[in-house]
Design goal:
single chain; alpha+beta; two-stranded antiparallel sheet; 6 strands
């Protein structure tokens, strides 16, 4: 199910990118005399894929985080499910691990802290994009 959510998210990103491309008008370039220059050899607009940053999930719901990462491999209750309580979550993705701590605020479980690291101590910190690609 987590793979399906990730696939849906990727398709949405691609769709938005393609929609943006389709809405850009290709206006002819003009030389110093104001005459149109043929489009041959001109590069179109460069669109970069949106960057996913873990920091953007701080303050968001646990459900939103799980939509990106899937279900956690480990969940440990921290102080119960009431106000001020929360959970410690660990997401395992190949050589990557993501740790998050959630807190209950007004009845909703919110991501308070989040961190990316290697699954083996001493290994370099992996790149988030690579981690998401290895997620199954």
């Amino acid at each position: 199910m987590a793979g399906r959510a990730k696939s849906t998210q990727l398709l949405m990103i691609i769709g938005v990118g393609l929609g943006a491309c389709a809405s850009v008008q290709d206006l002819p370039a003009k030389n110093g005399d104001g005459q149109a220059v043929p489009a041959v050899g001109r590069a179109g607009p460069v669109l970069e894929a949106p960057t996913i940053r873990l920091e953007d999930y701080r303050g968001q719901s646990r459900q939103r985080l799980e939509g990106l990462l899937g279900l956690p491999a480990l969940t440990r209750s921290e102080g119960g499910n009431g106000e001020g309580g929360g959970n410690f979550l660990r997401f395992d993705m190949g050589d990557c691990r993501i740790w998050a701590v959630t807190r209950y605020q007004e009845g909703e479980e919110i991501v308070a802290t989040i961190r990316l690291g290697p699954s083996r101590q001493g290994d370099p910190v992996p790149d988030l994009d690579q981690c998401l690609q290895t997620q199954g």
